[in-house]
Amino acid sequence: MSPVAFVYALHVLAAIVWVGGMFFAWMILRPAVIAALEGPARLKLWLQVLPRFFVWVWCAVIMLPVTGIGMININFSGFQTAPRYVQVMMGLYVVMVALFLRVSTLNLPQLRKAVLAEQWAEGAAALGGMRRLVGINLMVGVAVVAIAAIRPMF
């Protein structure tokens, strides 16, 4: 395998982990948890699930710019000469990271504090805020994947 192919594979895998994980959490896990568990148990489950997922998201947050910048330098000799779709994808990456930082550094601690104190209404509010931001982030991530898929026409 060539070094370029290896870097590209790492880049795609990081995107799959992040965007695919959000899709799974939003579209599959969330409805199943709502159907199977009562409020307090739901909040406790999410408090166990999200930190585990966020470890992988942090890996993706680091891997994507490292591999992306590597591919830019290999393929386009720098950001200035990269096609517009690459610049758009980088901008959307910044949006996704900002949303993730909000969820992981503000909302998750709020959820943890509420669950540990058994303040279920506050926990539900924190989880609801996370759900909205993850939904937005999922839409942005799907847009990035679509841009990557149609790049020759963009």
What does this structure look like?
By secondary structure, this protein is mostly helical. Helices cover 88% and strands 0% of the residues. The protein contains four helices and no strands. The radius of gyration is 18 Å and the shape is elongated.
Descriptive keywords:
single chain, 154 residues, mainly alpha, 4 helices, 88% helix
Task: Produce a short descriptive summary.
The protein is mainly α. The chain contains 4 helices and no strands.
Number of distinct beta strands: 0
Number of domains: 1
The radius of gyration computed from the alpha-carbon positions, rounded to a whole number of angstroms, is 18 Å
Estimated structural class: mainly alpha
- Percentage of residues in strands: under 5%
Q: Output the number of helix runs.
A: 4
Please write the string of helix (H) and strand (E) elements: HHHH
Secondary-structure blueprint:
Blueprint: H1 3-36, H2 39-76, H3 84-116, H4 120-149
Helix pairs in contact: 1-2, 1-4, 2-3, 2-4, 3-4
